[in-house]
Amino acid sequence: MESRNIMSISAKKIQLRAPAKINLCLSVLKRREDGYHELETWMQKLDLCDVLTVELTDCPGISLSCSDPDLTAGEDNLVFRAAELFLNEVDGPVSAGVNIFLEKNIPVAAGLGGGSSDAGAVLKGLNRLYGRPLTEDKLLQLGRRLGADVPFFVADYDAVIARGIGDIMYPVDSLVDYIFVLVNPGFFVSTRWVFDNLFLTTADKKYKLSCFQKRKTGFLPLDLMHNDLEKVTCARYSEIDSMKQMLLNFGASKALMSGSGATVFGVFPRKEKPDEWDFERIAGGLIRTFGDKVYIAKASAGAWPSG
Ligand SMILES: C[C@](O)(CO)[C@H](O)COP(=O)(O)OP(=O)(O)OC[C@H]1O[C@@H](n2ccc(N)nc2=O)[C@H](O)[C@@H]1O
Ligand SMILES: Nc1ncnc2c1ncn2[C@@H]1O[C@H](COP(=O)(O)OP(=O)(O)OP(=O)(O)O)[C@@H](O)[C@H]1O
């Protein structure tokens, strides 16, 4: 598997991007026996990225440091867990040494899949440094053990329709003709808490992504955009609806919460009224009202240089 997110590589060191994702549509279909939920979701990677530097050393063990002092750099970090899982798989009990630096740019516990993306990047980066001992299927399998979102970040697809718990993927075209304005209010939302508080009713409208999946047009039908998890997160945090409304007031064609929240994104088709959109003004307005975490993002489109 060739990763397009590799920024640099040498025999012992690799630097790679770990992109954020948004969910353009998320239907929760049913609760499973194991507590997880079956989903149908349309996920898109963005050019908002964390950056990981992974280096092999002679000193056994995993050492992790992180630019975000609020994020644990120990065994709780998904980066650490991904490295440990990989080394156990290829090495037996860890005998190799790995140094990792995580530059954290994606807001944490924000519905943007940051931790999952970091984990996916570590699995791919280590596999590359080790001379690709594991197949793509094996990496996807390891990813699944770390989290439902991780397989999407192990795969090199820019955008997918995903089913199962989010791990059965069908690639679709990347939405390169749109700008996404993201706003995060700065508080953490626990994905588990959101799913635990979701009350599924048969009356919920189910959005069928299957016909869209076959068209592969890179076009985003706005009436398809929906997130079943909004009702849980919005009921607890009134800021979500306010952020959506503000994005619409600024001219977004549609605004939606991503994943379990609390990040909200507005969709701005590039071809429509481009002169009227002054993204600096939009970002300024959002920052004044909701805090400093506003991002103007584009869909990832495989255009980054490969190693
Ligand atoms: C909501 C999404 O962001 C949509 O892309 C993802 O499904 C979340 O994926 P993730 O963060 O990788 O989730 P995990 O770390 O595997 O799971 C966290 C918790 O979320 C719940 N969870 C997650 C995914 C899923 N399909 N069903 C669930 O019920 C489970 O309670 C789980 O204990
Ligand atoms: N490398 C990491 N980056 C971010 N969070 C991490 C990382 N490692 C562990 N975590 C923990 O994982 C939890 C989820 O963080 P993350 O940023 O991945 O959430 P999220 O964007 O809501 O994920 P998703 O959209 O997949 O539900 C947080 O409680 C955080 O402390």
From TrEMBL:
Reaction equations catalysed: 4-CDP-2-C-methyl-D-erythritol + ATP = 4-CDP-2-C-methyl-D-erythritol 2-phosphate + ADP + H(+)
Enzyme Commission (EC) number: 2.7.1.148
Pathway in which this enzyme or protein is active: Isoprenoid biosynthesis; isopentenyl diphosphate biosynthesis via DXP pathway; isopentenyl diphosphate from 1-deoxy-D-xylulose 5-phosphate: step 3/6
Any one biological process term the GO annotation gives: isopentenyl diphosphate biosynthetic process, methylerythritol 4-phosphate pathway
MF GO annotations: 4-(cytidine 5'-diphospho)-2-C-methyl-D-erythritol kinase activity; ATP binding
One Pfam family per UniProt: GHMP_kinases_N
Protein residues bound to ATP: P107, V108, A109, A110, G111, L112, G113, G114, G115, S116, S117
Domain spans labelled GHMP kinase C-terminal: 224-275
Keyword annotations: ATP-binding, Isoprene biosynthesis, Kinase, Nucleotide-binding, Transferase
Active site, UniProt feature: K21, D149
Keyword hit for Transferase: yes
Residue ranges constituting the GHMP kinase N-terminal domain according to the UniProt record: 77-154
Enzyme class at the top of the EC tree: transferase
Matches recorded under InterPro entries: GHMP_kinase_C_dom, GHMP_kinase_N_dom, IspE
Lineage top rank: taxon: Bacteria
Entry's family note: Belongs to the GHMP kinase family. IspE subfamily.
Summary of the function given for this chain in its UniProt record: Catalyzes the phosphorylation of the position 2 hydroxy group of 4-diphosphocytidyl-2C-methyl-D-erythritol.
Protein name as catalogued: 4-diphosphocytidyl-2-C-methyl-D-erythritol kinase
Gene: ispE
